[in-house]
Give the backbone structure.
Amino acid sequence: MPQLNPNPWLFIMTLSWLTFSLIIQPKLLSFTPTNTPSEKTATSTKTLPWSWPWT
């Protein structure tokens, strides 16, 4: 069965994985986000109970 032959596909997978992890990923991780999250205080919303018409 030729689909079980790992010779061409293993090399392609390894090469693409190394390309991503050694070249592309450090370039993507070096970007700084433009909108940094701000420290906001958590505001609690007051919820009212629902008045069911059938009770």
